[in-house]
Amino acid sequence: MLNSLIGIIASSGGVTSTNSYESIATVTVGGGGSSSIDFTSIVGTYQHLQVRYLARGTFSGNEISLRMRLNSDTGNNYARHLLEGEGTTASAFATSSGNLMALGSVPANTGTASAFGGGVIDLLDYKDTNKYTTSRTLNGQDRNGSGTINLASSLWMNTAAVTSITIFADSGNLAQYSSFALYGIKG
Fold first, then answer.
1. pLDDT digits (tens, 9 = 90+) for 140-162
2. I want to staple 183 with a disulfide (CB 3.0 to 4.6 A). Which of 50, 82, 85, 159 is the partner?
3. Does the CA dihedral 89-179-184-72 come out positive or negative?
4. Which pTM was predicted?
5. Burial, 89: exposed, middle or buried (Cβ in 10 Å; 0-12, 13-18, 19+)?
């Protein structure tokens, strides 16, 4: 199933080779955690952007939701959809006007000990000033043999080229050793 999803995602984005990816920056959260991570001064030389991450939260719950904003925009300029599978249960969420993008969830302080959730975020046509920027995210986490998987999509209703990305937790901080890597995808 995962290979089928990867094939669909790769073919729809036009990515045909791992040589199409270029590492731009990596941020690893230090001791004490961090309320957010930022990628700034993003150049417009790629077709798409991709963020790959392993993350955990400090909130005293089982999990936290990861969120994203572009170009420091905190206005109600985002729409989002989220599909989640947990065991035999599926759920969905959508909003047409909000102030953030949805990225799925990762373990938090009382979740599975030392476990990190992982995900891949694609920002499509991030530099195209003739249309809105969209994202798609595939994310998951383990919960001692059970877990969740999320498929999220978001829309930034702004035609500006994306020059910065901020990722943050909905509650608490991102835990130490959470790591986020930004890649440019060549056209």
1. 998 777 788 999 999 999 999 99
2. 50
3. positive
4. 0.87
5. exposed
135-101-80-1 Cα dihedral, nearest 10 degrees: 50
Tell me: the pLDDT tens digits for 86-109? Answer: 888 899 999 999 999 999 899 998
What are φ and ψ of residue 158, in 5° steps? -155, 140
pLDDT of 12 reads 52
For the chain, which residues make up each domain, given as ranges?
A: 20-185
Residue owning tokens 């909000």 = 98
For the chain, give the mean pLDDT. 89
Residues 6+ apart with CB under 8 A from 183: 21, 22, 23, 24, 49, 50, 51, 52
- 2 pLDDT more than 90: no
CA-nearest of 13, 160, 151 to 85 is 151
CATH class of the structural domain 20-185: mainly beta
Query: What is the layout of strands, in order, in the sheet containing 101-107?
Result: 36-39, 165-169, 63-70, 101-107
